[in-house]
Amino acid sequence: MQRRRGPADQYGTSTVRPPDFDQFWAEVMAQASEIPLYPSLEHVPMRSTEQVDVYEIGYDSLDGLRIAGWYCVPKESYIPPPYPGLLIVPGYISEPTLPKSWARLGYAAVGVAPRGKLRSNRHFNPGYPGLLVHNIVDRHTYAYRGFYIDACRAVDFLLSRPEVDHSRIGVHGSSQGGALTVVTAALRADVIACGAAGAPFLCGFLDAIELTHSYPYEEISEYLRRHPEREPLVRETLMYFDVINFAPMVRCPMLVYIGLADDVCPPETGYALYHVLSCPKELLAYPRCAHDAGSYWAMPKVKAFLAEHLEPAGLPG
Amino acid sequence: MVESVRPADFAAYWAAVDDELARYPAAPEIEELPRHSTGFSTVYALKLTSIGPYRIFGYYCVPRGEGPFPGLLYTPRYGSVNHVPSYEDRERYAVLQIMHRGQRLADQPFAAAYPGLLTHNIDDPGRYIYRGIVADCVRGLEFLLSRPEVDRQRIGVVGDDLALLVAARRPAVTAVQASNLLLYRLLEAAERTDEYPVEEINDYLRAYPERREAVARALAYVDPLHHAPDIRATTLLCVGDPGALGGTEWLAPLRAALGGPVEEYRLTHEGGVDRDWLDAWLARRLGAEPRPLMWEIGGEGQRGRAFRHDLQHT
User: Fold this and answer.
1) How many helices (H) and strands (E) does chain B have?
2) Bridge partners (DSSP) listed for residue A54
3) Mutation site, B82, B297, B314, interface A, largest A CB count within 10 A
4) Phi and psi based region of residue A109 (left: phi greater than 0; alpha: psi -120 to 50; beta: remaining)
5) Nearest CB to B271: which of A101, A213, A290?
6) Is A134 in CB contact (< 8 Å) with chain B?
7) Do A261 and B307 touch (CB under 8 A)?
8) So what's the pLDDT on residue A317?
9) Could you give the residue ranges of the DSSP H alpha helices within chain A?
10) Quick check: bond before B85 cis, omega within 30?
11) CA nearest A5 in B: which residue?
12) Domains by residue range for chain A, with CATH
């Protein structure tokens, strides 16, 4: 028989939080904490302006990988320090943002390229498609184990900067960036002051693949079509990476925005995430909007939300 | 007033590209990708030779069953990755998603930088990266036109400026749908934004102010404004907000220059609505069935996505 989709906000995912979820991530974080960050900065005069300095950055992460990113910071002559820190996390196929326009608003902003992205793919490059199912039968080597940590260590990079106010660090992204926003806010709950997550990906993986056949989730469907016998292992692995399971760890204020016609990250899974966030939270749900998640209307609210909590000193707009 | 000026040797420049394309056989290699194939469509990895010579990549998808099928070319986005075509397109069209030189799967030996690609060799029209990128897209269209399963009377091209340039270079195109133009009046656009990728131009000109004239010259060859008179296909321009880059006024010179029938669609910023409208427009032009993804869910006034293969629970 065929099941009609019910109201998106009443959809219940099959996500289950493993009993050792916290322990698993505590061990991963402990392992990561033993790795010196070795942060590097190289000024990029070509992309710097009278208002903003741009740097190529690097730092070490799990598995001996060097992670790349962009760091944009207001010039002292434009806005004096200290600055709130802002981590911008990328979508699945998008290139890491060079967050110059955020720096112009007064943020010390990092656009990170987790493993597999351009400039961070020299020793790890499962490709697109590919990343989402790389070692998907083993939580200890699944691609997102390191990928999540790479994003978290960008927070450590910000903490290494003397011009950054450690009490005002936020995170923002959409799609996979929305997922990374929640994960970073969860794993670095001691630091992150607020997060804005659009169209969150990586929520209710195995429910999502029943709700959509759009990529990237389709990668998992394709994998399971070829290896149906591995479904239990895949399910087990993904429970450790399901963003819904990170949500209870988030303590800072969160803004979530979704499109109710999103075929890439089904709105049902966005609602499921939002429901289990126990922090101060706000949801913006846009009818008829797709994976854009209503960004036309949401982004002014995102900027206001981040400004309210992080208090940058730059001019609006 | 439009700043971009059509170079005097514009026609010769592109004739030389055509000559170079003709000099190198496409030498297609087609290999099925069972991982991506479904019951209704076969997906192939495609390799072709473009100018340079340079080997490019594409995902080529053919519906199962009796053809011929309408052909559809997706030109590459500005970024390193392009997805495998959607189920909805694979069901109706022989659809090709090209990866131009420098993008993933076509990044040996040249890997594009982001930011960086937009200004790669921009001071020399003969070496500007978009000369080759346009050729890569044209090569993709030529491949579609060479296929027996493709109905040459029903060819669509979807993308940004590259879709317009392909339609200009090859009159076989039936319908072209263009949105998010990047190369159109780019020097003027750069004065109105600091958002990437347009900001790459500003970065470059800050570093090399003395090259502004050379940059303007290189960009003029790839500005769709100057290709527009050669486009005979029915063209749909996606239009943004009034007064904005991409708005009606901004696109007016392009619209006026187009050589074939032109229509405009005012984007609503509601991605679901826009997607369905654009899908239906193209389907009508190519003799295919629209595949709307919108449906009423739950009977409570909410709207969400329905999918070609609704939830199957037995």
Assistant:
1) 10, 11
2) A72
3) B297
4) beta
5) A290
6) no
7) no
8) 47
9) 21-33, 100-104, 143-159, 176-187, 205-211, 218-226, 231-239, 243-246, 267-276, 295-310
10) no
11) B297
12) 16-307 (3.40.50.1820)
Write the pLDDT tens digit of every residue in B111-141.
Answer: 999 999 999 999 999 999 999 999 999 999 9
Residues of chain B short of pLDDT 50, as ranges, are: 295-314
Tokens (6 digits) for B219: 């960009």
Average pLDDT of the segment spanning A186-211: 97
Q: How far apart are CA A196 and CA A282, in angstroms?
A: 10
Q: Which of A211, A82, A242 is nearest to A148 (CA)?
A: A242
Report the distance separating Cα A167 and Cα B312, nearest Å. 49
Three-state DSSP class for residue A187: helix
Largest CA distance in chain B: 69
Mark yes or no for CB contact A100/B271 under 8 Å. no
Is A212 in contact with B305 (Cβ distance < 8 A)?
A: yes
Judge whether A83 is annotated as a binding position.
Answer: no
For the domain spanning B10-305, the CATH number is 3.40.50.1820
Catalytic residue among A53, A175, A207, A292: A175
Contact indicator for B119, B94 with CB cutoff of 8 Å: no
AA identity, residue A98: L
**How far is residue A92 CA from its own chain's centroid?**
10
Q: In the block, which residue shows the tokens 């194939």?
A: B37
In this complex, which of A95, A218, A288 lies closest to B79 when CB atoms are compared? A95
> Token pair for residue B117?
């690609």
Contact B7, B220 (CB under 8 A): yes
ipTM higher than the 0.90 cut:
yes
Quick one: closest CA in A to B86, which residue?
A214
Q: Which two tokens stand for residue B122?
A: 């921009």
